[in-house]
Amino acid sequence: MSEARKQSVTVRISGQEHVIRSNADPDYTRRCATLVDDRIQEIRGQAVRLDEHKAAILAALSITDQFLQARDELDALRREVASRARNLVSRIDSELNPESD
User: Fold this and answer.
1) Whether the Cβ atoms of residue 55 and residue 79 lie closer than 8 Å to each other
2) C-alpha span between 60 and 37 (Å, rounded)
3) Which of 31, 5, 33 is nearest to 19 (CA)?
4) Minimal CB count within 10 Å: which of 1, 8, 51, 84?
5) What φ, ψ does residue 61 adopt, rounded to 5°?
6) What's the angle, vertex CA 17, arms to CA 36 and CA 57, rounded to 5?
7) H-type helices in the chain, by residue range?
8) What's the average model confidence in pLDDT over 61-90?
9) What is the mean pLDDT of residues 16-25?
10) pLDDT tens digits, one per residue of 66-77
11) Contact between residue 9 and residue 20 where contact means Cβ atoms under 8 Å apart
12) SS3 per-residue string spanning 13-39
């Protein structure tokens, strides 16, 4: 199996250019950078006198919060689907093998 080749992508975050080397698709890297930049700008819009460094930290915390909430929701959905699948299998088994009840 061949390893994906790293590519350099230049992105602009908070008015500064950054060169990112990644195996990810360049468009995906740009989307990630845009999300970070948008969140920093949103936070800076709420607190005009906020240092750039603090705005970046708050943006990271905000994005992490959103990620963790989405992951928790996904885990709950997976548990629900697994439970429903087990119940369905049980019902099918009961219908196909009524004498085993």
Assistant:
1) no
2) 10
3) 33
4) 1
5) -65, -40
6) 35
7) 26-46, 52-96
8) 98
9) 96
10) 999 999 999 999
11) yes
12) ECCEEEEEEECCCHHHHHHHHHHHHHH
